[in-house]
Structures are given as C-alpha cells and as structure tokens.
Amino acid sequence: MARLRVHAFTLTLDGFAAGTDQRADAPFGDGVDGLHEWMSASFRGEGTGADHAAFLAGSENIGATIIGRNMFGPIRGAWPDESWRGWWGETPPYGHDVFVLTHHPRPSLPMDGGTTFHFLEATPAEVLAQASEAAGGADVRLGGGAATVRAFLAEGLVDEMHLVIAPILAGAGERLFEGLDALPAGYRVEALVPGESGNVHARIVRR
Amino acid sequence: MARLRVHAFTLTLDGFAAGTDQRADAPFGDGVDGLHEWMSASFRGEGTGADHAAFLAGSENIGATIIGRNMFGPIRGAWPDESWRGWWGETPPYGHDVFVLTHHPRPSLPMDGGTTFHFLEATPAEVLAQASEAAGGADVRLGGGAATVRAFLAEGLVDEMHLVIAPILAGAGERLFEGLDALPAGYRVEALVPGESGNVHARIVRR
Known about the structure:
CATH architecture of chain A: 3-Layer(aba) Sandwich
Oligomer: homodimer
Organism (chains A, B): Actinomycetospora chibensis
Protein name (chains A, B): Dihydrofolate reductase family protein
Shape of chain A: globular
Pfam family, one (chains A, B): RibD_C
Distance between the termini of chain A: 19 Å
CATH superfamily of chain A: Dihydrofolate Reductase, subunit A
Domain Bacterial bifunctional deaminase-reductase C-terminal (chains A, B): 9-181
C-alpha cells in the first residue's frame, strides 16, 4: 500500500481548518482571512525558507490524491447536473487521478493536464486501496477537508501529516482535532518549526 | 482597572489545556505528559531564551492573581472541611492576594510568604474589580484553568494572553478555545515565536 500523506493542512491558532458558511465564493468560509497567507509567496513564485519547502514537499513523489466532496465543490447533497467541474477550472493542478469521496457517485471526469476526478462512495481503506493502485508506486496525498482527514486519521491510515498553524483566530468553524481520542496512541508530533509568515509548521508522524 | 494578563497558559497541538480525569495526583489529568516541559529549565534555574523570558514575564508587575476553583485543588462541590490548602504547600509561590472563583465560598486563608487565598462567588467583572484593588496599581494575572480563562475572554476582560503550544497530542480533555465565537472581534494574534523545547509561544492582544 502507498504511503498516505497530508500536506499544507492549515489551522487557525484556535484550531479551525475552515470558518463558518463555506460556499462557492468563500470555499473556506468566513473568519479565516489569511489562513493560507504562508503559501502566497510560493504562489507568486517568490517562496523561500521553511514555508516554500513545506509548499514544495506537498507535491513530491505523489501519484494520486484523495479529497472529500466539499473540497471538490460547494454543492451538498445530490448533484443537480454534472456542470460543476471542481474549484480549479479546466486544468486542475493535480496532474493525476483524484479520488473524491461522496455519497453521490457520478461518472469519472477527465480534465486537461492529466487530472481525472473519480467519485466514490467507499470506506477510507477502500479508497486508499484504489488510490494506491493509481499512484503506481508513488505516495498518495490526502487533501482534505477536515472531515475527510479526520476519517483517515481515526482509522490510522495516515502515515504523516504536515500541519500549519496560522497566526489568526477564527472563533468558530470546522475543527480538525475533534473526536480523535485515540490519536496520541498512534501518532506523535515530530517538530514545530517557524515559517516566514508568523506561522508554524508541525509534522505529525507515526509512533 | 488593572490590566488583566494570562501567562504561560499551555495547550497541546490539538488544543487541550488539560487531559482527562484531572485529580489530586494528576492536576492536569491524563494524556498531557510534557505539557509544561518548556518551563522545566526555568524551574531548575537553567532557563534561557524565549522559554525563560516567557516564564519570567508571568511574574513581572503582578499584584494579584485570579484562579478558578479547580486550579486551587481537586475537590469538587462543597468543601468537606477546610483542610485542603492548595496544591502548593504552606508557602505558595504567589506572594500576594489570590482570588479563587468558587460556588462554595469559605473564609480567607493566609499562607506563608505573603499569599492569601480569598474565595468568591462573583462574576468575572466583580472579581477583577476586587483583584484590581488588591493589586495596588500593578497588573492582575489570570491563572486558569481553561474554564476560568474562557469566562474572562468571553466578557472581553483579558488585556493580553501569552499561550504556549506544546509539541504533544492529548486526543481528549479540556479545551481553551471553545464557545468563543466573538474572540476574533476583540483580539488578534501578535506573534508566534519558537521556544527551546520544540514548543511555540503565542501572544494574543486586543485589536
């Protein structure tokens, strides 16, 4: 089985991975402005230091990606049609197979640039098995959102997790660390390393 | 009114200020071993750097302290008698008036070394007014635990808060950031600064 890795998963200092009222024009909801500020220099092609290294690490040796349905789009419940094709336009940045966990499967969706979205109603272990095969010997990245990462953490399927703590407060929203009582039995914090944007990088690995 | 300051309030990376089953022989409960490791060099008289500076800042210009009842001791509900005199022995490290919030008031308790414990059933604003007067022009420190800090944060009474994030996972326990939806309206994160023990210091100040 491929190694399953979480990268660049960012939390506010008060523990929220997303704010309130996630929607089409605010994919991470309200109250989390600046959450991904630490990546902005990398997006501009001017990244340096720990922030840029963490940004780059997220695409090293990755052959497939798993995401939750809300990370694919803002639509909840049954798809009204197949016109929603993801947040990223016609050329998503993945360039490989992306497995979207959903209770509402639909036909696979090949996009430009080598990305194909596959829609599965399956357990975390089942989707990891499929993604492992698609990755062809490389690792699998677990993208998010919080509920999806939690589901894989709860089953001990995540091999390593890179978190970022952003220097902001959200007050309310969606937590990553919720109902993960058994987490410390399987995982430990390897390091907390400062970034260049007032943020901190954390690496969580298996015990 | 005196400035109200929180210092050295330590959370696990997953957001817990205390673990499960807080009790006499484990005041912070289970699952949080190493939570206060960042202070151990200071306690040994060998503190350096950001950790030691943060440790020392907590007693600078403090004239009175406010704590919750659970930070005074492990007894819940009515006092069976007055034999419990705090976690700290006959010479507590405060050296000034300490106001203990409790639904079960008892007579004030003068200890050696200048500490007197006062037991009040009062609102956060009322106890802050009393502690301010006792502080005689200096600041008041808000000690904890989490429920007590939350109560003062919710009313906007805290002027600054120094948090520490320890590189450990607890999985379960008592959170600081819970039900504080309005926090971002009143406060912002000033800085995240690495310590010497794999930890991070955060300063939260008024907007």
